[in-house]
Amino acid sequence: NGNIHAAEIAPTLFLTKYAIDLVNDWESNDKEIRNLLHNHTIVMIPTINPDGYNYSLYGKKTIKDTNSFTYENSKTIDETFYKANINGVDLNRNLPTQTSGLYFSDMYLYSATSREKNTEMYAYFPGYSVGSEPETKALIYWMYKHYKNSHAFIDIHSAGRVIYNGKQYLSDRFNELSEKCAEVINNYTDYHIIGIELFDDGRGTDGNTTDMIGELAHGYKFSTSTGRLSTTKYGDKVNTMEKELCAITLETLENYTQNLKTIKSEYYNKKLGQALTAIARLNF
Q: Which of 19, 20, 40, 21 is CA-nearest to residue 281?
């Protein structure tokens, strides 16, 4: 998936280009790609945050809901680095994972006042309740539909040229597989691998896509009483996976950009298409 953050438009273009390449290779009778697609399904969401995507590219005029947070606060929002949807919610903190929302009591919606008060916190506003946003609900449905038949999940972003993998609270097997996927992508892109030893679960990171897919793979169940995924071993490391898969966050590019030449150069020079195909070919 790509473009969960509004200003990160490059992943949408990367995934669209990758899909086009796969179709062209199939039509040209590329035997390797035909064999790959005969035996595997590659499922993509090029943009999770379409309103944010349009807002980042074309501004306030794209928003039809004049009561939305983004419309009302557009004068104070830096479109170049805007993360949230039009409701001001960071979708990558809004997923109903076990720990999502537990560390956000001091978060608040972006506004001129909050930007002056605290320039960092507004960027991670998780919503007033987890799983609240229509984009999040669509993503949850997509994950539930596909995770049991998946061996890899990649969340694509646009800043840093690093690969995040692993979760300290999930199983060694999950971390092993996620590191394997990270190494495959590193072989093509030379992006720096960030391992779990540098992760501190909580504070700005929980409730994201890799948390969600990782917890589903470990058998976490949705609880109507808590409104989130839960396990009987809350707070402890979960050691058993019900479905083996890897999950990584892929930060492409050096910084957010709308420069098409830079985005095109990243796709080709970092061999992103080949890297994604290599992940699709993996067998665990």
A: 40
Does pLDDT of 201 surpass 80?
Answer: no
Classify burial at 26, counting beta carbons within 10 Å of its beta carbon; exposed 0-12, middle 13-18, buried 19 or more. middle
> Rounded CA gap, 165 and 222, in Å?
24
**Is 229 in a helix, a strand, or coil?**
strand
Query: CA 238, 239, 240, 246: dihedral to nearest 10 degrees?
Result: 90
Strands 221-223 and 228-230: antiparallel
Query: What 3-state DSSP class applies to 7?
Result: coil
- Which pair of structure tokens corresponds to residue 273? 């298409």
**pLDDT band at residue 104 under the 50/70/90 scheme:** low
| Confidence (pLDDT) at 235 | 61
Question: CA 210 from chain center: how many Å?
Answer: 7
pLDDT tens digits, one per residue of 154-174: 999 999 999 999 998 899 999
Q: Is the dihedral of CA 55, 56, 61, 62 positive or negative?
A: negative
